[in-house]
Design brief:
The structure holds two protein chains of two kinds.
Chain A lengths: L34 H4 L8 H31 L9 H4 L9 H37 L7 H9 L1 H11 L28 H30 L12 H32 L24 H18 L2 H15 L6 H15 L14 H13 L1 H15 L8 H24 L1 H7 L3 H31 L5 H27 L19 H31 L58 H9 L3
Helix pairs in contact in A: 2-4, 2-5, 2-18, 4-7, 4-8, 4-16, 5-7, 6-7, 7-8, 8-9, 8-10, 8-11, 10-14, 10-16, 11-13, 13-14, 14-16, 14-17, 16-17, 17-18
Chain B lengths: L1 H22 L16 H37 L13 H30 L9 E9 L2 E6 L15 E4 L1 E5 L4 E7 L4 E5 L4 E5 L5 E5 L5 E7 L12 E6 L1 H16 L7 H10 L1
Parallel strand pairs in B: 1-5, 4-10
Antiparallel strand pairs in B: 1-2, 2-3, 5-8, 6-7, 6-9, 9-10
Helix pairs in contact in B: 1-2, 2-3
Classes of the chains: A mainly alpha, B alpha+beta.
Chain lengths: 615, 274
Amino acid sequence: MSTVTPDVGHPGAGGHDHDSHGHHGHGHAEPSPLSLLWQLPTFSCDHKVIGLQFLITTLMMLMVGGALALGVRWQLAFPWERMPILGDTIFKADGGQIAPETYTMLVTMHASVMIFLVIIPILAGAFGNFLIPLQIGADDMAFPLLNALSYWFMWPAIACFAASFFFGGGPANGWTSYPLLSALPEASPASGMAQTLWLIGLTLIGVSSMMGSVNYMTTIINMRAPGMTLFRMPLTIWSMFITAILQAFALPVLTAAGFMLVADRTLGTCFFIPSGIVVNNAAPTIGGGQPLLWQHLFWFYSHPAVYIMLLPAMGMVSDMMACMSRKPIFGYKPMVYSLAAIAGLGFIVWGHHMFTSGMNPALGMTFMVSTILIALPSAVKTFNWLGTMWGGRIQFNAVMLNCIAFVSMFIVGGLSGIFMAAVPVDIYIHDTYFIVAHFHYVLFGATLFGCFGAIQFWFPKMFGRMMNDTLGKVHFVLTFLAFNCTFFPMHLLGVAGFPRRYADPYHFPYLEHLLPLNQFMTIAAIVMGFSQFLLLANFFGSMFFGKRCGRNPWNANGLEWSTPSPPGHGNFDVPPVCYHGPYEYSSPLSHDKDFLPQTEYVPLAQRQAVAQSGH
Amino acid sequence: MAGRFWAIFFMLAAVVTVGFSAIGPEFRWWFPGDGHAHSTLGKKIDDLFYLILIIVTVTYIGTHVVLGYVLWRGAGIQKNDKVWFSHGSHALEVIWTIVPSGILLFIALYQMDVWRNYRVKSYFPPKTEAVAEVTARQFEWRIRYPARGKKLQPRPQPDDIYTVNDIRVPAGQPVAISLRTDDVQHAIFIPELRVKQDAVPGLVIPVWFEVTDTGTYDMVCAELCGWGHYKMKARVVATSEEDFEAWKANAAKEQFYDGLPAAPEAVAAKAGDE
């Protein structure tokens, strides 16, 4: 029975083979596949429903952020030409053209939506919520109501972002919102009410994340099942735990900075505003502040945030990769330590965003050393992923393909990071498209591919049905190819000195010849954008038409696979007991199958016999 | 053997990206202009760039060869074959921690000199004179030069010379500019000289460079400064010392020409120049 093909043999009766011994301790019947879906519009405190609410919200926001990106790409490929489809309705006043202030708005809001409404909530919010109690064997989060609030605080934030579009054309000061551009309402049309709303939205996202992270830490520390020691936790849980710590310690700084900037804008304080600055013939500022202070505070949060946007995906990919290679994770403890090292070092590298900012040059040197060193735990993780696949029986399904893409793209994104960690080289490539290439390889190439895999891997647990693997592969191939065609050339654009956030770079003689390459990239981006409809079709279609599956369609080891699909309220039939680590695939202890669920007890005599035989 | 197909798929992607980078310079998808830096520090920056590029390319190819091999092999393992049951190897972990950390530390420490030379004032080349004050504003660059034979003063002088979006410097010697901004944050970026520095409200930041070849170089703004960020177009004109002085003399004459016939030689000089 050493197979990972889904258990689809018993439609309608999926999972009964696993719990036929009658432990319906809480009176659970097998729930209907869509039981979680019907609870979506409710103020449910069930972690699974909240996770799903996060997931579906972020998938919607992914499409919004993608649409904004296509606006950016249109302008870069066909500057000042009438934008198709939406141009005539949205930009009617400009003759269907994207005006320069609109372009900077698109850049700003693409980043804001993707970072704050997609990547952070899909990892911590969606998968964190759904997986943490299931994987540690708890019946719910430690604070279910707080958990529900963390989701519902997303909506005021989304409302703030949405409302900001109607003031001055929308926020257009970059997702970093450097003062003074963002501090003085006179500085640009977008620096008025739009900027204030953006800052309030950001703060609300922070409140939501903070409620989540407190909850995750408490739950993981206190509510693990008996036998679930720290070093038997799946790496997903480790990564969520470390991410929660990162968030809890870094986020207050951003919240404080956000309030300071709002105060500068509305109360007349001058935390970030020096004296005697005249913007657009307004009265000189009174001042006494320092714009660099914002950069320090902002990046003190936002650099760790980069890891908040990556570590959970690393953890999930480790879980999926071990399962799909039918092999234990290579170097479990080094994986944990390197996660911790990335998080720890992540707190002392923020200055690498500021190498050209005019801060003390001695700081530049220290930040260079810490930044380059953070490549080390990343390299260790990469080698361990390769080691995990080495000699495994690799299942090339859509889940695994996305995981392999994660590793491959993460290598590219990690290696390009070394260029910008080196301060002198960063002088040249800072704020060029090289940076844009780098963070898209990490955030999209790594994190989003990891999420695509995770969606397909845990979908059966959410809905009791499988997603279509063929459609998943088509989506993967289209996205992977289009992704590389869009973002790989950006490295070369960056080397050519192509600056970021330019509505029309081509009036500079040294950039003229780069237009055809940009047109190619835009076509690829359009393919990539529209490919995501395949994911949505697969996701929503499979809820109703996917093949029914049992409790453990992937033959995986984690505790979550011992629950019904989808699990009812309270998750487990009986409180689970954990006997092994999560990655005992193909263990000699399990004779007839190639996996050893964490709940399966192996008698001592058998373990001793196997130990003596040399394993 | 669908698995083998995927092994080849991922390998091809890696091969295509490497190949694409290799042909980049053919299509001038590479460093701007003639592909070489035109400042002394710029050449060192390029050397570091290529050093890192070599290390990174070797690593990229190496890891992807391993990835391809692993996938190819993994695709061949049949349903009933045994997989390699292993939880890891302490020796391997030690090796692949120590070797990369050595390489990374080398990269970090090797760069210190160039950075120190670029930004730490006491390591600037001796006798680096501030030739001009560059003030960024939405959306142009205003440049103030001291009169001939005088030094740049922190505050404007009556005999200062002004230009807009046109920086003149002598080539072949280290020169400095004082970078300021009138309003929001901007950044000076001269790609062919590999110079970049933010102009921060409230600060005056010295930036030095030594242009090695005379010529005209594009200059852009590299920090989002509002809707017109993309149009802060300027140029840096590097000339010989004599031409620079001659330009300055001429610019002073033009700037202070009051339209009265008493200064016919200025008109004549100008006509002679052109």
